[in-house]
Specification:
This protein is of the alpha/beta class and about 325 residues long. It folds into three domains: about 140 residues, 3-Layer(aba) Sandwich (Rossmann fold); about 60 residues, Helicase, Ruva Protein, domain 3, CATH 1.10.8; about 90 residues, Zinc Finger, Delta Prime, domain 3, CATH 1.20.272. Helix content is about 55%, strand content about 5%. The chain has 16 helices and five strands. It has a five-stranded parallel sheet with strand order 2-3-4-1-5, with helices on both faces. The longest helix is centred in the last third of the chain and has 20 residues. The radius of gyration is 24 Å and the shape is globular. Keywords: ATP-binding, DNA replication, Nucleotide-binding. This is AAA+ ATPase domain-containing protein.
């Protein structure tokens, strides 16, 4: 990420605003992706579908494309030329047939430039609504660019994919995260141990936003960040309680493990809070071998999914704990 996005004259700007990439160059995109996007911008052929995992930067890249396309035009002016559509699954079909159609039929507010419709998470809308979007592409591409993103392109109808340029974004690697974090550390003069850096990068969940937020916590503490301090920064739940819980399941002490996890519940944390924080903890913990981690992570993910889709109930925590003990007992 470029240092050009940071200035010492803006001490009160939130890190997420200060260090989020602003231009396409800031994203350190693969050369072929950067060149493709640049060509599409220059040729005004921005009927585009960005495909990438959560945290891959899809939305921010779309914003950068828009800024580059409307370069040298005041933002308040070109914003009138853009229709942002989010959470499409909550809108009725009539919304697409009226609001979107009306927007596409009116003239561009910027001379010599097309209007833009931005649809985040197009894979989250139903097929009928996607068909309306496809019809808009067919009718209004002469006046409107259609920028969209998705996580799973298999949920995007083929007739839309065939009308858009598809670009797949690679997963965020630890190498990229280390580079971003080191840039912030150097720029902000954060004093931090190497093992603390490694821990924070590992628990950032491959997400730049999380990493930037952790970096801001380090800065706000205005103290040297060692490994113990990084544990507190990256988890709302006391890491030492997770250490005790993990040691208990390793030794097969189910009663103590259950007592510990219910103590966390009594501190006011929900089941989802506990599972999500424990998942992050496991990935960076040195108490478990890689084989042991592989054995219990599927159970953590299973329970997170179940509680997210159905309901969460702390009565399930003893069963969850028992499953972890059984998983480790075969290792």
């Amino acid at each position: 990420m470029s240092n050009d996005t940071v200035t010492d004259n803006q001490p009160h700007i939130l890190f997420i605003q200060k260090y989020t990439p602003k231009t396409l160059k800031d994203f350190n995109l693969l050369p072929e992706i950067f060149n493709s996007l640049t060509t599409l911008i220059n040729t005004e052929n921005l009927n585009l579908l960005l495909i990438g995992s959560m945290g891959s930067g899809k939305t921010n890249i779309i914003h950068s494309i828009i800024k580059e396309y409307y370069k040298n035009i005041v933002e308040t002016v070109y914003n009138q030329n853009i229709l942002y559509i989010n959470n499409l699954h909550e809108q009725g079909i009539n919304y697409y047939r009226s609001e979107v159609k009306t927007f596409c039929q009116t003239s561009s507010m910027v001379k010599g430039k097309k209007k833009i419709v931005v649809i985040d998470d197009i894979d989250m809308i139903n097929e009928q609504s996607q068909q309306v979007f496809r019809n808009c592409i067919d009718k209004y591409s002469h006046n409107v660019c259609f920028l969209s993103s998705c996580t799973n392109n298999q949920k995007v109808i083929e007739s839309i994919q065939s009308r858009l340029t598809l670009i797949s974004l690679p997963h965020i690697t630890n190498t990229i995260l280390y580079s971003i974090f080191q840039n912030i550390i150097d720029t902000e003069n954060i004093s931090i141990d190497k093992n603390a850096v490694e821990f924070i990068v590992n628990v950032s969940n491959k997400t730049i936003k999380n990493l930037i937020n952790y970096a801001e916590k380090c800065k706000l503490l205005n103290a040297h960040i060692d490994y113990e301090m990084s544990l507190k920064i990256c988890s709302d739940i006391d890491i030492h309680m997770f250490d005790s819980y993990t040691n208990s399941i390793k030794s097969g002490d189910m009663r103590n493990a259950i007592n510990i996890i219910y103590e966390i519940v009594d501190d006011g944390y929900s089941v989802m809070d506990i599972l999500n924080n424990y998942f992050s903890y496991i990935k960076a913990s040195s108490l478990l071998t890689e084989d042991q981690k592989y054995a219990i992570v599927p159970y953590i993910c299973k329970y997170i999914t179940a509680f997210h889709d159905i309901h969460e109930n702390d009565i399930e925590l003893p069963l969850f704990t028992n499953n972890l003990i059984k998983a480790l007992s075969v290792k």
